[in-house]
Amino acid sequence: MADIREKVSGIGSMSERTDLNVSQQPARYISGMPYGEGQATYEQQTAAPMYGGETSPVTEIGAPTRFPNSPITSGIDSGPGPGSEAVTLPAGGQPTILEVLRTIAQNDPSGETDLIFNTFLEKGSN
Questions:
Q1: Per-domain residue ranges for the chain?
Q2: Is the dihedral of CA 108, 114, 117, 121 positive or negative?
Q3: Cα 72 to the center of its chain, rounded Å
């Protein structure tokens, strides 16, 4: 891992700017989006700077398994291995469609899932 030295803000008169730390990704304007969405996306990036350090390692599609003693059917209610009870789910059991859409929308840079999520919210309130 890289040795990252970031400014950490104090409190009150000891506070310092931390928005210029070097490990942040620069904000980027995305052209070609529907009217106003490019600017809105840019403003979101500048309001909450994105992490710019190292990311988690990505496992290649053809890479050997990291769990050689675990059956391929682990996590489903069919075949050998633990069933769906082994999969971590929210405290209430199966998530609702709104919970799933909310989670996906938070990680969808296109904003399309957010539009679907908001449509579901509007339909549910009518």
A1: 22-55, 87-126
A2: positive
A3: 26
